[in-house]
Amino acid sequence: MTRLLSGVLLRVLIAGAFGSLMQISALAEGLAQVRFSGAVGPGIKSHLVEVEIGDAVGHDPVILHLHLAHGTTGAELAALVARRAKSAGLDVTLTASNDKGASLWIDRAAFVNVRLGAGLVADVSCVEGPPSLVKILPPQAIKQACRAHMTASTAIISNGRPPLRGSISLEAELQPKTDSAAIATALWEAGQKVWQSERPGSNAWRPIKAIEGGILTGFSATMEGKGDWRLEVTL
């Protein structure tokens, strides 16, 4: 009897460990989408942007700090990032919808960091689950306020029933002199009525689940405004 119970306990421990590893793996990598749109200008002759992408496979990350000419569109920037990412070995797909916007899809993504502004916008999405960390850093060259938009798709799972799906969102007005720790606090406070979240670091934030108990099945973040705010999303 003791041997039987030991065997059952061992199987439970192995299953629990495997489940934990799968959960960690899901948080560490997945499919990410970066939707680039807009254009540099008007009234801005040139502008420096930052785009940084890493995968969970072990390829060298793509680190691009680019001085862009007036009128450069999000679609043009996406095409360049896609070419550099493919050259580095990352698994990426570029899809364009119009002359100013395009989406970059990164399989097995580990992180996406962007600093745009000046008319360019990046909407960063974790397509298959929640992020493990979100960080926003204040602007440097164009010190203007922005509105941070965070949205998530949710699902309440019940045995024998189809998932009950929904969506939640938050907005936070951010001032250029706000430091990253205060920004993380603002995101945490702004979302208290819609989802549970935590502070994995003094200047970071991450959503966990909807306040009514639904799991997060996807997440998007974008910074609206001309200021060159930096958005960092870790899967």
Draw up the topology in text.
Layout (H helix, E strand, L loop, with lengths): L1 H27 L1 E9 L7 E10 L6 E8 L4 H14 L4 E5 L5 E14 L4 E7 L6 E5 L8 E11 L7 E11 L5 H11 L4 E4 L7 E5 L4 E10 L5 E5 L1
Antiparallel strand pairs: 1-5, 1-6, 2-3, 2-5, 4-5, 5-13, 6-12, 7-13, 8-9, 8-12, 10-11
Tell me what the structure shows:
The protein has 235 residues and is α+β, with helices and mostly antiparallel strands. The chain has two domains: 29-125, Sandwich (Immunoglobulin-like), CATH 2.60.40; 129-235. The chain is 22% helix and 44% strand. The protein has three helices and 13 strands; from the N terminus they run H-E-E-E-H-E-E-E-E-E-E-H-E-E-E-E. The strands form two sheets. Strands 1, 2, 3, 4, 5, 6, 7, 8, 9, 12 and 13 form an eleven-stranded antiparallel β-sheet that branches. A two-stranded antiparallel ribbon has the order 10-11. The model is unreliable at 1-28 (pLDDT under 50).
Keywords:
two-stranded antiparallel ribbon; 2 domains; 235 residues; alpha+beta
Low-confidence stretches: 1-28
Structural class: alpha+beta
Strand coverage percent: 35-45%
Summed up, the helix count is: 3
Classify the helix fraction into a percent range: 10-25%
Quote the average pLDDT. Answer: 85
Largest sheet: 11 strands, antiparallel
Order of helices and strands: HEEEHEEEEEEHEEEE
The value of Rg in angstroms is 20 Å
Please report the total strand number as a whole number: 13
In short:
With 235 residues, this protein is α+β, with helices and mostly antiparallel strands. It has 3 helices and 13 strands. It has 2 domains: 29-125, Immunoglobulin-like (Sandwich); 129-235.
